[in-house]
Design brief:
The protein is α+β, with helices and mostly antiparallel strands. It has six helices and six strands, in the order βαβαββββαααα. The longest helix is centred in the middle third of the chain and has 23 residues. This is Glutathione S-transferase-like protein.
């Protein structure tokens, strides 16, 4: 009996060695590793993300600040079910249903809780992570200029230097980020046995 073809995982790659760095694809990578589902990675340069998503006939599931479509990654192609999934949380749900693990990605009756936690964490890191880290993203030198133009269009910037946060402004933003993380961290100390949301047992939201 032949082994099933591994899942194809589309991730945003830094360069030139193509290492994972983007937060949302990392969530999907965590879920893939957690589920122990065999997978191979296709690293996509940032300027090619929209083209890659369109080639797979997957509509965008996220929006830019101006409300326009935001085609991004991750995507998985699960060859065992002939399924394409293009959102990190939906990828976790798919893996939970079709590649169950022990312990499970989602304990019983916790999907809604995980969805709320994911939305809260996503908003927090979008608000603080982009201003604090966006300027220093590890772009592939071969496509760096195109990647910067993509980022500038995404966030409505006229100059790449507008993304650079320094001095007192950076210190204030960092303080706000630390305070926001403190609120998020409080969710992890509700169970004495820790360190995950559900105590000692790792789950999707406990990463």
């Amino acid at each position: 009996m032949t082994s099933p073809k591994p899942i194809t995982f589309y991730d945003i790659g830094s360069g030139p060695s193509s290492k994972p760095f983007a937060p949302n694809p990392w969530k999907a990578r965590y879920a893939l590793n957690f589920s122990r589902a065999p997978f191979t990675t296709v690293f996509v340069p940032l300027p090619d993300v929209a083209k890659t998503r369109a080639s797979l006939n997957l509509p965008p599931v996220r929006k830019h600040l101006d409300g326009s479509d935001f085609p991004t990654l991750p995507i998985i192609h699960d060859h065992s079910t002939s399924t394409l999934v293009g959102d990190s949380f939906d990828i976790a749900l798919h893996l939970h249903a079709h590649h169950p693990s022990t312990p499970p990605l989602f304990p019983p009756n916790t999907v809604a809780l995980h969805r709320a936690f994911n939305a809260h964490a996503d908003a927090l890191f979008t608000e603080h992570g982009v201003p604090l880290a966006g300027y220093w993203l590890p772009f592939d030198p071969a496509t760096a200029e195109a990647s910067r133009r993509e980022m500038m269009a995404r966030f409505g910037l006229k100059s790449w230097e507008d993304l650079k946060l320094e001095g007192e402004a950076r210190a204030a933003k960092m303080k706000g980020f630390e305070e926001a993380l403190g609120g998020l961290a409080a969710w992890f100390v509700k169970r004495d046995e820790g360190p995950f949301l559900e105590g000692a047992t790792p789950i999707l939201g406990g990463r």
